[in-house]
Amino acid sequence: xxxxxxxxxxYDTTLRDGTQGEGxxxxxxxxxxxxxxxxxxxxxxxxxxxxxxxxxxxxFFDLAKGVKFQHARLAAFGSTRRANVTAEEDPQLATxxxxxxxxxxxFGKTWLLHVTEVLRTTAxxxxxxxxxxxxxxxxxxxxxxxxxxxxxxxxxxxxxYALATLDAAQRGGAKFLVLCDTNGGSMVSWxxxxxxxxxxxxxxxxxxxxxxxxxxxxxxxxxxxxxAGATMVQGTMNGYGExxxxxxxxxxxxxxxxxxxxxxxxxxxxKNWRSFSLEIARYANQAANKKAPWVGQxxxxxxxxxxxxxxxxxxxxxxxxxxxxxxNRQRILLSDMAGGSSVAMKxxxxxxxxxxxSPQMRDFLQRLKExxxxxxxxxxxxxxxxxxxxxxxxxxxxxxxxxxxxTISEVVRxxxxxxxxxxxxxxVNGDDxxxxxxxxxxxxxxxxxxxxxRAFGTHFPELANVRLVDYKxxxxxxxxxxDSIVQVLINSSDDEHEWWTCGASPNIIEASWQALRDSYxxxxxxxxxxxxxxxxxxxx
Length: 540
Known about the structure:
Blueprint: E1 9-12, H1 28-41, E2 45-49, H2 55-64, E3 73-79, H3 91-98, E4 103-109, H4 112-117, H5 123-139, E5 143-149, H6 151-157, H7 159-172, E6 176-181, H8 188-201, E7 207-211, H9 218-227, E8 232-235, H10 249-259, H11 273-284, E9 301-302, H12 306-313, E10 331-332, H13 336-349, H14 361-373, H15 382-393, E11 400-412, E12 417-428, E13 435-441, H16 444-456, E14 467-475, E15 486-493, E16 498-505, H17 508-529
Helix pairs in contact: 1-2, 5-7, 6-7, 8-9, 9-10, 15-17, 16-17
């Protein structure tokens, strides 16, 4: 790694700017878990939200007060004071202080259009608002990062005034001056030259980049800004954000680390980059972008023919970097042989040895294709995939067989509650006896889960400590309305390990049962492999 290049600080705003994206929402607890994961990944700054803007962000900052981050510094986000009031009188600044974060990021207006037409104040008062707000927060012991909103649009309109807003933030004591391409409309070469001028103008204060992707250039603009001298880059995981999204950290960070050799603190954790991207997508309840550079399922996928043949012989002939450095893998598509190779590679990741020329491979690939056409997505459900592999290649037989199930939901208006009841019938360990169980819960999936465990009875006490951690639902064919295919992902845990399973059906309860069933099958399979549970006698 080059010692001549300055370290670049990675500032994540998924939990604030990312949630402005259409369909993106996190609970306060989810935000805390994500922040802790980002800390473990080596991020430098995590922007948690805007205190006072909504109850969820307020709850998050309250939760975060009890957490000690090992590396990252947590930032609360807000704006400069209002016009014609003092910083001490501004309730929004008081809320930022009350959030009790070590860092506060505030934005101010750079573009005179916004100053006069949106804020309806004067250019001089806007400069005072910036300086007063930064000085007030630094006086409270906070590290202040100043986001110059619409900087590049403002610079095009009036360069001297745009720079004057940065002067005001610097006088107030801002640690970073972040240049925002808020409308996402700048071109790379012009932006890069502008950043060089700003860096030269403020030699004592580091500069950061905050770009949006409206022209599809968010990553390129961010990287160009760093090459021009910026030492902080702001963005979101998976590019989540308003309109078409923010600059995508999943591409920015590996480009800086591996292509340009900039020191970034999360470099050592990039071997987990793909799995982290998928984890954020699950929290956001969004489909993973298969075409995403670096981390997408297709990022290192090759179809049959010349490309696939060459990539198998010499990977770098068609791959710009070893996929493993970001936790990805090479995939060969289309032909039976290539498909078998891909399955064997995935099996190896799961600790299974499978010959890609096995006679069962053709049937397995056909079954896999059928399930994926029905809506299964094994990419995010390794446990379901591992069960399927063992079923085809290692003769796995299941310990239980479903006879039938039924769910009923009852609305009790008097008490304003909904009660779900499930009735299930199972045969266990190949016996002819039918085990019937009934359970109630707040929802049908929880009731079905509890009823199944009761039906297992004393046969599988090891399932007692398995619990549902997360439950995700996606509609796969929205043009079909209420008859759309529903995909369900379930995260289960036995307090030592977690695993994801999937199901798909036009019926949400059936899709949920498929995912639940695979969760039990996976746990029992692992117990069989360890000798705790005897092998089954009857397949499902």
